[in-house]
């Protein structure tokens, strides 16, 4: 029978302690002859009996929360290499060079020039990403600097995407630790660490170091159509590029450490990392395979490379090696591929040890393989297209986030728009809260560029309906532009306003700018000026600069010379920022797009207000030119009586 009453509701030991305490205190009070001692003790006991359970419950909950945090931390740390019993190893005791290509020909460590840049960032607690080709020495250099600067610090080495992400989701944050993200492309993406979580780790005093191969980094760079979530994570780092070629100072250090002229010459010819890391043996094995020594084995290596080249970073399942290898074989060897013994012979060749540390295909868990990254670089450098039949296999076996990457690679690396559409359509139908809206957005952009306006509008609307924080506002902006191009002014204005209302950092300012241009085209000067002012107030480099430029031209057109000059001067500041962005990264697609928008918008605005000649200056230093143009009185100045400025006054030419 279930007990009820006091003992069933309160812990036994507090009641016992309270009773014993009251009796003891009563005895003392009696001996001391306190007046009304037992009455006061009875009252105190009643109050204590009422309050004590509440206090004890709160204390118990607090202790339980601390235990849960500790358990979560220990569970999270189990996902980091070297953690024992929930306790992290130190930099001095952990093996940070687990993923370093093991030295075949040992030589002393050669200090690189970039070490000082790396040290400065780490001392300032800025996350650093080392970027370079395979075997260039990224991991070795980072491990060396960490050992010299932070040898006693605890170090977390995530060995899965979820290790850090799960700790962040449960509000357990590492502090004053080294976070080691070697080959970071394995650890980001769907389910991995986000840029926001990474920044929070940085602000908690952690030292964060990541490495990535140059080719993998290039695959994640944004285009004018798509910005992968992985890129936002990479943008949280300071980027340090490690070159293959040795500088003059590095060559001098090499000469001091390695006295044999023959070895020095070989290192200069093939590279430092390649010389010590069996690069020659890897290249030779691939050449022999391609020459027909073992066509099945070579095709299996290329199949694994295709798996990675299309944008998938996880190991390739063993079951997919044969389907992806088939297009790389002639008819005779395709038949041999179906023979289990022949397949196993080829797999044995691909996985054999070139030396004790290196194989072209390396087992990665149960029934899956990784292609040796230097071999991947060599195969990728051949720029061979991914066979048509392989795309279907890749799309059929990809996870939702991987489908977005496959489409990205198909469109922008291999110029296969139809494959990109196929991958993004599948991703857009996968019902993933984050991936589906992003896939719908990029699918809409692709269909728009391919001339399929109905399909593009449907895809944009899917992204908008998702109410996704990033994809929905950007889709509203793109839909507004598409509807505007089709002459659907009301629909375009509604879409632009939806993007503006989202307050999205990029979509809202650009929508204000585009809305202003649309209203100006409809000769609604008052509405246009309001929209341009919104763009200016956003401080967005592109939208504020262009919005200010066009608004300045409008103010000049209605005779407000002081207002025009002030507005254009402010616009110049934002356009200078845009030029700085362009100079800092001339290949950034978003900067190139912004630059082109600047040219198009100014040309469009100039035509609307009917100036004879307004050319975008190369250096954005337009103050004097703008002022002189405003001072000129062109007979072709527009009849602003036809413009609705909204103030009921007649604004003729100044």
Question: Short description, anyone?
Answer:
With 654 residues, the protein is mostly helical.
How is this structure best described in words?
There is one protein chain. This protein is mostly helical. The protein folds into four domains: 65 residues, no CATH class; 143 residues, 3-Layer(aba) Sandwich (Rossmann fold), CATH 3.40.50.300; 113 residues; 140 residues, no CATH class. The chain contains 31 helices and eight strands. The strands form two sheets. A five-stranded parallel beta sheet has the order 2-3-4-1-5. A three-stranded antiparallel beta sheet has the order 6-8-7.
Features:
4 domains; 31 helices; mainly alpha; 60% helix; disordered N terminus; globular; Rossmann fold; disordered C terminus; 654 residues; single chain
């Amino acid at each position: 029978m279930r007990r009820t009453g006091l003992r069933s509701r309160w812990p036994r030991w507090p009641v016992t302690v309270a009773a014993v305490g009251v009796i003891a205190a009563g005895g003392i009070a009696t001996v001391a002859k306190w007046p009304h001692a037992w009455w006061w003790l009875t009252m105190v006991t009643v109050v204590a009996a009422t309050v004590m359970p509440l206090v004890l419950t709160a204390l118990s909950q607090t202790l339980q929360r601390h235990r849960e945090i500790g358990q979560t931390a220990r569970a999270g740390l189990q996902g980091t290499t070297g953690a024992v019993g929930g306790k992290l190893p130190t930099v001095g005791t952990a093996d940070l060079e687990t993923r370093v290509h093991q030295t075949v020909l040992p030589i002393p460590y050669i200090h690189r020039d970039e070490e000082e840049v790396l040290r400065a960032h780490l001392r300032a607690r800025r996350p650093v990403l080392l970027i370079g080709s395979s075997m260039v020495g990224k991991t070795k250099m980072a491990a060396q600097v960490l050992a010299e600067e932070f040898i006693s610090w605890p170090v977390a080495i995530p060995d899965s995407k979820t290790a850090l992400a799960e700790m962040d989701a449960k509000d357990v944050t590492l502090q004053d630790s080294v976070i080691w993200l070697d080959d970071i492309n394995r650890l980001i993406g769907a389910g991995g660490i986000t840029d926001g979580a990474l920044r929070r780790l940085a602000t908690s005093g952690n030292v964060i170091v990541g490495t990535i191969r140059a080719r993998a980094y290039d695959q994640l760079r944004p285009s004018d159509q798509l910005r992968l979530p992985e890129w936002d994570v990479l943008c949280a780092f300071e980027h340090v590029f490690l070159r293959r070629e040795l500088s003059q100072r590095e060559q001098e250090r090499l000469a001091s450490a390695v006295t044999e002229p023959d070895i020095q010459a070989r290192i200069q010819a093939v590279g430092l990392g390649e010389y010590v890391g069996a690069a020659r043996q890897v290249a030779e094995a691939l050449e022999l395979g391609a020459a027909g020594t073992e066509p099945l084995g070579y095709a299996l290596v290329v199949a694994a490379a295709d798996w990675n080249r299309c944008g998938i970073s996880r190991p390739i399942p063993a079951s997919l090696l044969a389907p992806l290898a088939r297009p790389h074989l002639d008819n005779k060897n395709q038949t041999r591929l179906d023979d289990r013994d022949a397949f196993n012979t080829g797999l044995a060749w691909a996985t054999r040890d070139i030396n004790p540390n290196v194989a072209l295909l390396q087992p990665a868990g149960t029934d899956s393989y990784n292609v040796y990254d230097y071999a991947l670089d060599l195969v990728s450098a051949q720029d061979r297209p991914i066979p048509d039949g392989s795309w279907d296999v890749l799309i059929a076996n990809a996870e939702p986030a991987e489908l977005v990457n496959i489409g990205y690679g198909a469109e922008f690396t291999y110029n296969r728009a139809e494959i990109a559409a196929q991958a993004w359509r599948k991703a857009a139908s996968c019902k993933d809260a984050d991936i589906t809206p992003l896939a719908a957005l990029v699918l809409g952009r692709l269909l728009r560029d391919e001339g399929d306006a109905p399909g593009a509008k449907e895809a944009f609307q899917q992204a908008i309906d998702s109410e996704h924080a990033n994809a929905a506002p950007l889709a509203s902006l793109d839909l507004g532009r598409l509807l505007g191009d089709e002459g659907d002014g009301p629909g375009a204005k509604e879409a632009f306003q939806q993007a503006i209302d989202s307050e999205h950092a990029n979509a809202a300012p650009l929508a204000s700018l585009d809305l202003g241009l649309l209203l100006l085209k409809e000769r609604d000067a008052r509405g246009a000026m309001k929209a341009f002012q919104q763009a200016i107030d956003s401080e967005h480099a592109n939208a504020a600069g262009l919005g200010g430029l066009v608004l300045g031209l409008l103010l000049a057109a209605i005779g407000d010379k002081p207002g025009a000059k002030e507005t254009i001067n402010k616009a110049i500041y934002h356009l200078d920022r845009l030029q700085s962005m362009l100079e800092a990264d001339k290949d950034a697609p978003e900067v190139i797009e912004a630059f082109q928008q600047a040219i198009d918008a100014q040309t469009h605005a100039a035509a609307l207000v009917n100036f004879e000649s307004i050319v975008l200056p190369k250096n954005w230093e337009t103050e004097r030119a703008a002022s002189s143009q405003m001072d000129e009185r062109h007979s072709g100045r527009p009849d602003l009586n036809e413009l609705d400025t909204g103030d009921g006054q007649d604004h003729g030419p100044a």
